[in-house]
Amino acid sequence: MSAAVRIAGVSKRFGAQLALDGVTFDVPAQSVFGLLGPNGAGKTTLFSIVASFLKPDAGTIEVLGKDPSRISELAGRLTILPQDAEFQRNTPILEQLIFFRMLDGRDRAAAEREALDCLELVGLHDYAKRSARTLSHGMQKRLGIAQAFLGQPEVILLDEPTAGLDPANARQIRDLVASLRKRATIVVSSHNLGEIQELCDHVAILDHGRLVTAGPVADLTAGARELEMRLSRPLDSAEIARLTGAAPVDAVDASNAPDYRLRLAAHVDWDAALALVLKALLDIGVVPRRMHEGRSLERHFLEVTGGERGARADNG
Amino acid sequence: MDLRHVNARQLGLICRYSIRHSLRSGSALVYLLLAVFFGLMVANSIIAPFEAQVAKAGLAGMSETEVEEALVGFARPAVEWVIAPHRSDDPAKQLAAEERTRRWGDYLLDERPAVLSAIFLILLFGMPLLIPFGAFNQTAGDIGSRSLRYVLLRTERMNIFLGRLLATAAFTVAVQAVVIATIALYLWLKVGVYAGAAIASWSVRGFLAIAVSGVPYVAVCAWISAARDSAMTSLVVANAVIGGVLLGAAVGAFAWEPARLAAYVLPWGVQNDLLAPSAGTVAIAFGACVLYTAAFVWLGARTFERRDL
Known about the structure:
Chain A has eleven helices and 13 strands. Chain A is α/β, with parallel strands linked by helices.
């Protein structure tokens, strides 16, 4: 799979603070790529460097084979939802979107049509003539998403796209991103690891400005022979002993009962082991309510970023 | 400064959009009001005493010579104050400077409409101090709010910088044109002591002088704005730089005469020459203003190209 974005040895320092330290990875074309990391990991800095808002101190970036600092060579093929950018407060939002699209080379009529389509897509069609200062935070976020989807971008960078949105709007945005899968390469950073796992096929995890890991989500979460289960009730120690005796289970983590994490023995077939575990549970009258093969992305994230500290993933 | 990627279509779009945006945001209106108020106040301070004298004596009761003497009399203090020569310890140089000033004064007061000459000289002096109010926020506010980020992926930085600079310069010059046209029309239609052709030709010359000398100050503001993240800081710095250079040169010259040369950091030292009688002097002043503009645009563009946005 070819790379839509190539990040090679990128470093960035703000005064004494090293925000990014030699970050290198590729974003495969037509993938939905998640960028994860705890607070201050450097995610937003990396987005800003890819979009050429910030100049790297070292390293190179390629987007669709071009240097993004020469943006005219990308001509509307790269868009971004920046994290903290405001729209111009006193100008009607439709006029702002038309202006953006006209800069991409469209004539006014086509630009207006596309801008209205995008506003419709995010449920802001009725607010087209309003100025940005009259919109709520959530509406402004949706407006930012509308401008990121304007035209036919081939690479879309979304920095915390669902932050500040109510669940219905967040779901709408996730569906929108999912609908663009295979049509564009989408890079998403998010607080919500479940969201990243749902949306993304590849991820990279940053911590303290360094790349900790990168690769397909399936590889990262299936890296260990583990089974995460939520059971109908907690197990007592005798029942856990019975489970490990009846099924090829090397260890049981019961620290979050009734959520259990089972490490299966390495030498047995996965399906056979799973059948034995389920049988053992049903024999003691316990019903699995939820089950996940391998590690969840959240678990992997916590492991590679240092446990509880990593759980405080935030905008970086 | 890399002009290879400048796109004329995008430049035009950004320029038009910027003018509309600055009108909506009110900063352009503040400059418009200040410039119109200042221009009309200057005109009033020179024309009103003459009108009062005419009202007392009646225009019909004054001979042509008396009218001319009255007009020159009201205009002379302002003209002499602005074009007064610098003192020199060398008597020959001092004499030559005084002779040059006398010829210049005759040209402004006797050969051209004296009242307009006085008004133009004061506007040449005062307009640069007002320009920051219209030009301070070319990019600084949008850098601070990061709203530029929506545009940065759609056009080269150079197009943004130059488009906004052109918009600001165009608006600044347009306001100056409105001020001068208003004064010229009033002088022609209401006061009625100069021929229309004389007023028109001298007004065009005065407008060109004020416009040409104003553009370098717009470019200075563009440079300062590109270097700051806050519109307010940009306004303060722009005012401090433009006013500070003039004040520093004037005050410094009392202690050490060559300090007056500090005025040449900005067009302060050459801008009055745009109303000189000699075509050669005017051409040099014009060329200097073009060079000042080019230098400040280059510095601003370089800053904007290289900085984090």
